[in-house]
Amino acid sequence: MASTTLPAGLLDALRQAGRVVFLTGSGVSAESGVPTFRDALTGLWARFQPAELATPEAFQRDPQLVWDWYRERRRQVAAVAPNPAHHAIAALEARLPETLLVTQNVDGLHQRAGSADAVEFHGNLFTNRCRACGHAAPQADPELAAPPACPDCGERMGPGVVWFGEAIPAQALERAWRGASEADMLLAIGTSGLVTPAAALPEVARQGGALVVEVNLQSTPLSAQADFVVTGPAALTLPALAAALDDILP
Ligand code: BV8
Ligand code: ZN
């Protein structure tokens, strides 16, 4: 396995950090074979932009088309497994005194890797939500062919994800914002920092006095805010970080 050199000082800073926040984007799921958000628009969907499918207006305009895209993504995710990056984050959560995992991903892979309490900032593919009355329900069957009717109000339900132009679920926003502002360290992993308000969390952490670590294949708009940069695939760099921490923790 290629060795990963961790930036000098990172391990000590992680060991001394009391409260650690992990903020993940689709780069964490890339090595499970889940296309990143933009990659998901290939093949059948190549002719669309995210905003043409991942919005309430798109669902109003053509519910079946939008539903089919989410059904395809549910199938893809149901067929893959968490990768070493997800498992390393679960291992770090178990080893560190106080952690919070905030994910922008909707694939549920962190939970399948053992991160039981992930804050799903953008919702979850395997749930449905009624935008008319707020009724929400799990939707385990990736093959459901059409949007189900809301059992409470009869309106058509859509995927339980946060579309562009929709508000972040209040509890997720509150937990993530408070966690970042109180953090001693925030690790931004596999996110391009393009989508707001998630992209503001590293700055919220810095304002609160936290150290910011970026784990990514390449630099992003968040790199300028980072005290440490770990470059490489998360499925390599995060297990290396977890193993190195194990070596120095009692
Ligand atoms: C809101 C769920 C207000 C859906 C997602 C102009 C016009 C209109 C709107 C806006 C505008 N400007 C700003 C906005 C706001 C908008 C926004 O940010 N737009 C962007 C595009 C400019 N935001 C919103 O609308 C948000 N809501 O603002 O509400 C409001 C307030 C009150 C009341 C009403 C309204 C809601 C945003 C949520 C959108 N939903 N997902 C679905 O999945 O279908 S976001 C979606 O895109 C993903 O969840 C992800 O978070 C995001 C980015 O996707 P990707 O590019 O795939 O992933 P990422 O960016 O994380 O990049 C991958 C990274 O990983 C890269 O850096 C890559 O280098 C790295 N990587 C790759 N492989 C690896 C790796 N790193 C390590 N290892 C590897 N192996
Ligand atoms: Zn309803």
Account of the 3D structure:
With 250 residues, this protein is of the alpha/beta class. It folds into 2 domains: 10-34 and 82-122 and 168-248, Rossmann fold (3-Layer(aba) Sandwich), CATH 3.40.50; 36-79 and 125-161, SIR2/SIRT2 'Small Domain', CATH 3.30.1600. The protein is 34% helix and 17% strand. The protein is built from 9 helices and 9 strands. α8 (201-207) links the parallel β7 and β8 (211-216). The longest helix has 16 residues, at 63-78. It is elongated, with a radius of gyration of 18 Å. It starts with 9 loop residues before the first helix and ends with a helix. Zinc ion is lined by residues 130, 132-133, 135, 150, 152-153, 155.
SSE class:
alpha/beta
Strand order of the largest sheet: 3-2-1-7-8-9
Q: What would CATH call the class of the largest domain?
A: Alpha Beta
Bound small molecules, deduplicated? ligand BV8, zinc ion
Could you write a compact summary of the structure shown?
Helix content is 34%, strand content 17%.
Key phrases:
250 residues, alpha/beta, Rossmann fold, SIR2/SIRT2 'Small Domain', 2 domains, six-stranded parallel β-sheet, three-stranded antiparallel β-sheet, 17% strand, elongated, binds zinc ion
